[in-house]
Amino acid sequence: MNGIDISRYQASMKLEDVKRAGYGFAILRGGYTGYGANRVKCVDFAFENFYRQAKEIGFPVGAYYYSCAKTYAEGEAEASYFYEQCLKGKQFEMPIYIDVEDSHWQADNKTGVTDAIIGFCEYLEGKGFYVGVYASLSWFNTKIDVSRLKDYTKWIAKWSPSKPTVSFNAFDMWQYSDNGKIGDHVVDQNIAFIDFPSIIKKAGKNGYSKGQTSQPKKTTSTTTIYIVKAGDTLSGIAKKYNTTVDALVKKNGIKNKNKIYIGQRLKV
Q: H-type helices in 110-171, by residue range?
């Protein structure tokens, strides 16, 4: 099955066009840790829109998080953030990945980055997700202790016309190009070698119940989710929804009412 992986860099792209172009899935960047000194965790602002489109047209999606973690605790913390901000309450037909490739924090710490991968994966496995790790073939060969990751699906990046060979246990997805074209958009191209949607649904992972083959019927909810946009303030959002700043702070567990970020999901 052929697919793509996308992020805010393709924000204006329509998944309907992706499906029409013959692709069968997309892996969405849900979040990332900035590689600056503070390593701030962020949500990719295009994630919610891509996810909504996928559900509207029945298009299989997974998600990934760009990591800067180099300890078990840091990997676990990234997974917790990813779960709370992006994954919770959603369904994914493809795996959830930790993306390991950061040269600023991870490149010279093979043990630490492997610990981080395990911390990330174990946390999300505990939440019922089908998890894996993405990295380049060179990182898998030299910067990760792959012998400790036998339990997790692997997604390898190696841009070449021929499927790479590996010295470790098999990988299930291959990113073979970074220059695919869909309209005016350039995308990474991938091949999945196994039927992830069937495996995930049968196992009851990623928000599905065991044996479930489709999305559950929507139920009526009194909670509205607002996605923060550029220029938004809590006071402005509160006025729009006829509520108060204090009510929004309490409902969303906000620690600093003067600090919200683009892409943040708020219950209103």
A: 110-126, 137-142
